[in-house]
Design goal:
The protein has 6 helices and 10 strands. By secondary structure, it is α+β, with helices and mostly antiparallel strands. Strands 1, 2, 3, 4, 5, 6, 7, 8, 9 and 10 form a 10-stranded mixed beta sheet that branches.
Length: 206
């Protein structure tokens, strides 16, 4: 779930409202409310402003209250993950000022290290990953065939690719037909690319 979804659920329950009640108040479907609360959809600006006005808070408060989020809100077995743009991840040094939002995910491994990234293109549309979506990445340097991974390239850019190894060759696939965004094949001994992590969760954009 997202921080926004978690906060909306908390405010809704404090107001003794059902999902159906809130949907009626905001003139949206109950499925939309349910999907936002459960983290299946990112809320757009229009929804966030409507919900903030209804609950008497600011949109910033709903969008994580990044400065005022209280970890005590987190249910047991959940963790809070920072969301970054890819250009921030490219620097290799992530700062609090680079955080654009936070998301809450369920995890069975409290020692796993996660980051989340706002997707900037449609290179993996066959995997149903589109620009504007958010992907949660478990940080690790090893990938298995079929994994969607965050890759660091020789020019220091980072992007998502589907990983496949065949013998001594590794291919990093895209779904793009554009000549400047091809799938790339490397020898396994080539250290010019790095696997930064594996996508473990996708949150679609509204």
């Amino acid at each position: 779930m997202s921080i926004l979804g978690l906060t909306i659920r908390k405010l809704r329950e404090e107001a003794n409202l059902s999902i159906e009640d809130l949907a009626k108040e905001l003139s949206v479907s109950k499925n939309l409310i349910r999907n936002i609360e459960n983290g299946y959809l990112n809320a757009d600006a229009d929804f966030t402003e409507k919900a903030a006005a209804f609950f008497g808070v600011t949109p910033e408060y709903l969008r994580a209250s990044i400065a005022g989020f209280e970890p005590a809100f987190l249910p047991k077995g959940y963790c809070c993950v920072n969301i970054f743009e890819s250009k921030a991840i490219e620097t290799g040094v992530l700062c609090e000022s680079d955080v654009i939002d936070r998301i809450v995910i369920q995890t069975s491994d409290e020692h796993e290290d996660y980051i989340a990234m706002l997707v900037k293109n449609n290179l993996l549309s066959n995997c149903r990953i589109y620009a504007g979506d958010t992907v949660v990445i478990a940080r690790r340097s090893i990938a298995e065939n079929g994994d969607v991974c965050l890759i660091s390239f020789p020019d220091q850019s980072v992007d998502l690719r589907k990983f496949y190894r065949d013998g001594t060759k590794v291919t990093l696939f895209t779904d793009s037909k554009e000549e400047d965004l091809p799938s790339l094949t490397y020898d396994i001994s080539n250290s010019s690319y790095k696997v930064l992590g594996k996508v473990v969760k996708l949150i679609a954009n509204m």
